[in-house]
């Protein structure tokens, strides 16, 4: 099959950092090789930095970000537990489904898509939930919500946060903000191919975990024998075969980020997003996400009236090799999602996205 | 971190086929890119060939082989269902745990480790199980069991088979043998890095599936919208972000296998295993797996009396860059596992494993 070289400017995956791609081609290591175990330990350390946590139990789960969501719920929620979910997009909706499969009494707090989470409504939705769950950066709408405020008001509840599209892209401080359980993905601002779910859980949540969760694969009690908890003890228990190539790639991607400096990486995402969003507005397009809550790394823009969303995306893909995303859910045909994440969070990528979109819009006859 | 180049002669992962490694370094594709969707479809076709099936629902699950086990049970077993499990090693034991977490009434049929599954005992263990489960090639013991005989006698039960260490290494004919649900891993004889679980389920099992399984991530009803069932219809539903780099690598590894010819690949594994096992016997070592049921791709050998298993493995790793496996479970210190799988199923690898083991045994002072 001929190589196809895309600019991945959709909602993810983005183009990985070159260091992350190079690592995939290195000789494979066994999952119990001492060299690999050191690399895994260092990967967990690096993940702690991007999560903003000191949690011992910070690991890359061996599946994609959606499995991180599942791991978060199956390890903390069992029959009859009350789970308040802030729903302001597709991933909040999904949390309700996943929590319900754990037997939770789900209390969804619905929001208009495009708006951030209303912290007061979420915190007053139930007097004593076991878990309050929210999405930090909604991939479906391009909206950022205030996790720190949820953490400050959570009371006795555990705060469970989706950081799939925020990690290593915008400010994220799990410990300072009171996040008890968090999951992410590798294929967004971390700049690594999809396939792993960076996960973190603090002692408070671990102490209240489900002793024998319905998932064997994602059972943190079993996983602890292989990573994290066993560090330094010399004893590692086999649980499953870690995806060693992907872990090596994550290790390298994180190395690139920390070498640049995490706050510099955040600033680079902010600048690329600012360039893109101001350019889109100058072109006469409208942004979808509410002003003041727009993610720099993932921009949602309204498809202009009379323009065929798919036709424009096809021109971008076929003429320019650029992938952007359709909208999600009810907005599939009326919103585009443009991601400048990880390696793509650069001014030149922003300019290229703008120029190519202008070209495609002209091609379909749109005038502002 | 300096590159370390190992010969992975343990129970897996093995060294990938070069084609599979090269594919990991190719430009990343998005999971909804038409080029990627074609590649995914072709990957599923190729998987059908190595499974020996025409099942439409034949897909690479986005997690490792152990998640394939979990997917098999959560989609077929719910509260109170009777599951007969043939237990002749670690992975049969694990099946019992995973099935129990689905609420199954588990009927384990215990065997001595090193022996193949006793088909008559398994089939007579319960008059009307919903599922009969067995491991085709026990990675913990190096033993092959007769799946065709289980299929011939299964009656109304669904036959659920672990093919993690058999797929693309020894004869496997899912449809001819009556396998209803099967899972595998990529890191053994398929010659690809760990990270995906090739999975297949036939119409008979799919019709009897759990409508809303406890796992959202592994829910076949949801997964069907993205792969397999939607093929040709043009409509693909987003479920989760497929690990596109790993799928491209699997596609390439399968391409290599099918170019060589599946039966030729089986013959290559048989020959490498024969060379290794006859060489070990000539050295005066004893094999662990019962004669007549020995896997060519994974050889279990008894650690000679008075020899420190770990010391020998350390010499192999540090002097020769060769990884072999310790034993599993109660045999951790008394058995070695030597895998010649996928790209390593070659005469030169067999000779090297023998020569290096002889050197290490001499180093620790062992004489036959």
UniProtKB/TrEMBL annotation, chains A, B:
- Residue sites binding substrate per the record: 337
Cofactor(s) annotated in UniProt: pyridoxal 5'-phosphate
Instruction: Domain (Aminotransferase class V): give its ranges.
Output: 38-329
The family database entries (Pfam families) matched by this protein are listed as: Aminotran_5
Q: Which GO terms describe its biological process?
A: glycine biosynthetic process, by transamination of glyoxylate
Q: Which residues carry this modification: N6-(pyridoxal phosphate)lysine?
A: 188
The alphabetical list of record keywords is: Aminotransferase, Pyridoxal phosphate, Transferase
Which GO molecular function, any one, fits this protein according to its record?
A: L-serine-pyruvate transaminase activity
Q: Which domain of life is it from?
A: Bacteria
By sequence similarity, the record places it as follows: Belongs to the class-V pyridoxal-phosphate-dependent aminotransferase family.
Q: Name the chain's protein.
A: Alanine--glyoxylate aminotransferase family protein
User: Species name for this entry?
Assistant: Nocardioides guangzhouensis
């Amino acid at each position: 099959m001929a190589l196809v070289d895309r600019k991945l400017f959709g909602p993810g995956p983005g183009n990985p950092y070159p260091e992350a791609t190079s690592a995939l081609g290195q000789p494979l290591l066994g999952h119990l090789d001492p060299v690999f175990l050191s690399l895994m330990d260092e990967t967990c350390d690096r993940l702690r930095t991007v999560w903003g946590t000191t949690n011992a139990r910070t690991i890359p789960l061996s599946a994609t970000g959606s499995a991180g969501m599942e791991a978060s719920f199956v390890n903390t929620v069992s029959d009859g537990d009350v789970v308040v979910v802030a729903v302001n997009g597709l991933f909040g909706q999904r949390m309700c489904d996943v929590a319900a499969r754990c037997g939770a009494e789900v209390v969804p707090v619905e929001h208009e898509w495009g708006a951030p989470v209303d912290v007061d409504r979420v915190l007053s939705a139930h007097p004593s939930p076991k878990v309050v769950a929210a999405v930090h950066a909604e991939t479906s709408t391009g909206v950022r919500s205030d996790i720190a405020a949820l953490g400050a008001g959570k009371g006795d509840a555990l705060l469970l946060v989706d950081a799939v599209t925020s990690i290593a892209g915008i400010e994220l401080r799990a410990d300072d903000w009171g996040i008890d359980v968090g999951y992410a993905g590798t294929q967004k601002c971390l700049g690594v191919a999809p396939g792993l779910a960076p996960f973190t859980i603090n002692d408070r949540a671990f102490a209240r975990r489900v002793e024998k969760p319905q998932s064997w694969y994602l059972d943190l009690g079993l996983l602890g024998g292989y990573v994290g908890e066993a560090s330094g003890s010399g004893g590692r228990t086999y649980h499953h075969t870690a995806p060693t190539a992907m872990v090596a790639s994550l290790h390298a991607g994180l190395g690139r980020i920390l070498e640049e400096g995490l706050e510099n990486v955040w600033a680079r995402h902010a600048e690329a997003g600012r360039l893109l969003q101001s350019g889109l507005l100058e072109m006469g397009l409208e942004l979808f996400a509410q002003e003041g809550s727009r993610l720099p790394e993932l921009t949602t823009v309204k498809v202009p009236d009379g323009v065929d969303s798919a036709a424009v995306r096809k021109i971008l893909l076929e003429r320019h090799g650029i992938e952007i995303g359709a909208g999600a859910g009810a907005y599939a045909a009326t919103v585009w999602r443009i991601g400048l994440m990880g390696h793509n969070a650069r001014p030149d990528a922003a300019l290229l996205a703008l120029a190519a979109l202008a070209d495609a819009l002209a091609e379909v006859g749109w005038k502002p």
